[in-house]
Design goal:
- The chain is mainly alpha-helical and 187 residues long.
- The chain has one domain.
- Helix content is 47%, strand content 10%.
- The protein has four helices and three strands; from the N terminus they run H-E-E-H-H-E-H.
- Strands 1-2-3 form a three-stranded antiparallel β-sheet.
Length: 187
């Protein structure tokens, strides 16, 4: 049995599920609070102009791109969901479990909107409500979790942290490098 076929890390799966569940719960609670206390289009200043709530419905992707193709985003989200579920048993690292948990929770938050909100199944509009001056877009907590997952993915990848949690360093090809790993010419 190779290293890829090792026993599933229960700890990593529990962390992934807990993070995903937390993100989904907080996202859906926030969307419920917004839809039940604000009117569509309403804006509430929370921290001056630095942080505002602005209730909108988004049929497209980021920046409302592709509003006429909502069903395509639903299919893509289902594909990513399948990939995360397929990939999850390979994770041995808590850090990677957090990354996939953030991605899964955010994905499920927005997918739930696409599947169960009007105008129809699979073409529902995502509830967005957060605005900050740095971005010309309105987003939600699920979007924030997905973005954080992407940032952590990049950090772990740059640091060479594998799914097993170990740091993997690529051997140098420079013969003068003192850390160079010799290769076996017989292979």
């Amino acid at each position: 049995m190779g290293p890829e076929r090792r026993k599933v890390s229960v700890r990593a799966i529990v962390v992934l599920a807990a993070v995903a569940g937390f993100v989904l719960l907080v996202d859906q609670a926030a969307k419920f609070a917004v839809t039940s206390t604000m009117t569509l289009g309403q804006t509430i200043q929370l921290i001056g102009s630095q942080f505002t709530l602005h209730y909108v419905k988004n049929a497209g992707a980021a920046f409302s791109i592709g509003t006429g193709a909502t069903w395509i985003f639903t299919i893509i989200a289902l594909g990513v969901l399948g990939f995360v579920v397929w990939w999850a048993p390979r994770i041995r690292s808590v850090a990677w479990a957090i990354v996939l948990g953030l991605l899964l929770g955010g994905l499920l938050g927005n997918l739930g909107d696409r599947l169960f909100r009007p105008p129809s199944f699979g073409e529902g509009q995502v509830i967005d409500f957060i605005t900050i001056p740095l971005l010309p877009a309105v987003f939600n907590l699920a979007d924030s979790a997905i973005t954080l997952a992407a940032v952590l993915f990049i950090v772990l990848t740059i640091r060479g942290i594998g799914l097993d949690g170990r740091r993997h360093v690529t051997p140098s090809a420079d013969p003068a490098d003192p850390d160079r790993t010799p290769t076996d010419p017989g292979r």
